[in-house]
Design goal:
Shape: globular
Order of helices and strands: HHHEEEEHEEHEE
Strand content: 15-25%
Structural class: alpha+beta
Number of strands: 8
Largest sheet: 8 strands, antiparallel
Helix content: 25-40%
Length: about 250
């Protein structure tokens, strides 16, 4: 009698590629390294963490991800979002977010969220690789942002909001990542995106990359004036707040 192959797949089971598990591991590990490196002022650790996060994102976008049930995807992608959400809660961040275009101190741009509702950044004191600030304005700095590698190499500074939006949309489409829509109207920009990081959306690599890209295109600091939800999309209302020199 022939022995049944113990490694034969059941027709009722769907295979899960190890690359997807690696993507989860890389993203979680990268988040920890990025935060720890920023806290310790270790730029090498920050770069290593950011690189791991980007590799994890790429792994998520590869064919085969749909082999996992949607419930499993939600659970696996929740860790980085929960980490940053808890961090923001512990710091009691109550200020509006400031999206900073690339400049000398922050070559990749960044997102600064002050503790105080009336707080604002002093761009002359911010430094890439630092995460927590106690003075002159207490707050949290994301620089580089989680998704900075998605826009690395793009010539966006001063190219315009529309051009920046189109350039990033092209990259997201090639990677199979969720599309983002941005609409400029005078001094305001509306952004619509689907995200799993609704509690702390700036932890979303796609959204964080898009926000910095828009600030670079406008060549101005952007402030997040309002966040809401429209038909399943996260809606952010941004306002242009002047060039970097105004905030030095």
């Amino acid at each position: 009698m022939a022995m049944e192959n113990p490694f034969k797949f059941s027709p009722h089971l769907k295979p899960v590629k190890m690359g997807k598990v690696s993507g989860v591991t890389l993203t979680a590990l990268g988040t920890i390294l990025w935060y720890a490196g920023g806290s310790l002022g270790n730029q090498a650790m920050v770069n290593l963490g950011v690189g791991a996060i980007i590799l994890g994102i790429v792994a998520f976008s590869l064919p085969g991800w749909k082999c996992l049930p949607s419930e499993t995807r939600d659970v696996l992608s929740a860790s980085p979002c929960a980490f940053f959400s808890n961090l923001a809660s512990d710091l009691e961040l109550r200020g509006k977010a400031f999206i900073v275009p690339p400049y000398e101190n922050l070559p990749h741009g960044g997102i600064f969220i002050p503790v105080s509702p009336k707080g604002s950044p002093n761009l002359g004191r911010l430094l890439e690789g630092r995460v927590l600030y106690s003075e002159p304005e207490p707050g949290l700095l994301l620089s580089p942002v989680p998704g900075w590698k998605l826009i690395d190499g793009l010539e966006l500074l001063g190219a315009g909001v529309g051009y920046a939006s189109s350039a990033v949309s092209g990259i997201l489409d090639r990677l199979g990542l969720p599309d983002v829509k941005a609409f400029e109207d005078g001094d305001t920009v509306e952004v619509y995106v689907k995200t799993r990081c609704s509690d702390f959306p700036y932890a979303d690599p796609v959204l964080s990359a898009v926000l910095v890209a828009l600030a670079a295109g406008a060549d101005e600091v952007l402030t997040v004036e309002d966040i809401g939800e429209v038909k399943g999309y996260l809606k952010l209302l941004l306002r242009k707040a002047g060039g970097v020199e105004r905030w030095l």
